[in-house]
Amino acid sequence: MALAAIALVACKPGGNNSDEPREELPDWYYTGGTLGTTTNTSSMAFRQPTPATEAAGMGALFAQGDQIAEKEFVTNESGRQHGLGPVYVRSSCQHCHPNYSHGTSVPEGTYNASKIGNGTLLVVIDPETQNYVTWLAGMPQLFGAAPFKAPLDPNQITVTWKTAVDEHGNQFPDGETYELRYPEVKMPNTAVYVYNQGYRDEKGLLESEGYEVKLENTIGVYGSGLLDAISDEDLIAQYKKEGNDKLPNGEPKLKNGLNPAFWDGTGLPVATAYYGSSVNNPTTKWGPKRFTYALTRGPLQDGAGANAIWNITNVTRSDRRKHYLDLNGTIYATCASKDPEVQEKFGTEEEIYNYLTSTTLPAEMTDEEFTQVMIWHRGLAVPAARNVNDPKVLKGKELFTQIGCDYCHRPTWTTGEDEIRDPNGFFAAGDGKLPRHPKQKIWPYTDMIQHKLCMVNDIRTGWCRTTPLWGRGLHKKATGDAYEARMHDTRARNVIEAIMWHGYSTESDAYWPTQQFYNLQKEDRDAIVAFINAI
Length: 535
Hints:
Helix content: 25-40%
Number of helices: 18
Largest sheet: 3 strands, antiparallel
Strand content: 5-15%
Strand order of the largest sheet: 3-6-7
Low-confidence stretches: 1-10, 14-19
Distance between the termini: 27 Å
Radius of gyration: 23 Å
Mean pLDDT: 92
């Protein structure tokens, strides 16, 4: 109770000793509950600690974790933030998550991987199977620490924005127009290091047949600890609800159903899937996955951030004493070990290969530093909703529910006991090392489940987890981006474009809500936009 009281005071506009009149605030103002909401709505809104983190005496550790996430890692063999490489995706969290927001919009032209804010990853897949190619990592590295060379040369990769036209001709009934665009990525074979070293797969790495390249933008890291605090039982209940929901005619409510990788169609979710183990803790763990578009990760302690601080930078730690290379595991190592220029600076073919494939490398990040990173990651607050008493916003909130947007963008959850779960065995429930946010009513606007929108040049597999909407209206302020960078590949530059992409195809799970939006009067459409930008 004391903790909740501290948090409530911290979230009240005007502060504890202010004589200013206090506006009556609805519960949805507190997007992260009283333990997880910050009233800071400046450009630094996504960088604030939750009241629970500070109340637990972890404010200084949070700040240290923030410094690690903000600053670049270096290729030094010792000193602060050393160990970058031998190959890496980016050199800091800030590169992909500017001010811890989503990545910024991708401009047309050469893919600029060095630009801070370009958090959009290159997704290289076999178009027939939709699987990642095995000769690159799932998140392909774009840089190499000498003498090693980058698996991909981003300077040879180009992005072109194409125009799409929907069944309405990109025009509302009242004459207002909108644009729909999508990216096309070109990557010649010569951009691929292993190709230049003579490697060929069964398809010969032919650009027109062997692989396809897509963009996939990073999402904001704020509020991840609150999503992790949702109980497995409540997530499973959501799967059961959506998996069994029917229309009045008896057909499934969702046109595409649920992803069979997570739902078996009988009432029991396959979402209770294996989500990780390690040499520290080989016991099989089960529970619904909740992080990344593809739902590849379970609890936050084994989630995207805990993984990224290792595989984005290739900085080893005690539970990850190996390098993140291609999915095959040996293709890059074999090619690099035979490269005369690498041999000249590093050593023999055997020494190079053994170094790149070793699973017993020294830890470059200390356990203390990793703990600080995870206190920061789990302790990032969500900015409070804005303009919550504005009649236009309130009208938009009502219409958002009326037309059915709230089915996938479920407004609210209540967190569970928030016991720490880590299949890697690094953290343990009850060890008191990480901040917790139990029993909070939060407003992320996501059902945490994948759906299909069936867009042109769609996300890999077509299945995409519903992205939380909280805080998205502050993206431009936090990043300086010219656009709002919505959707998985930044194709939508504003809310209108994002909504209309949801209904581009009649096969989309969101087709009918989008048609409801399309037929609204302009003032009602604007109200929904105002609401989405307010939350």
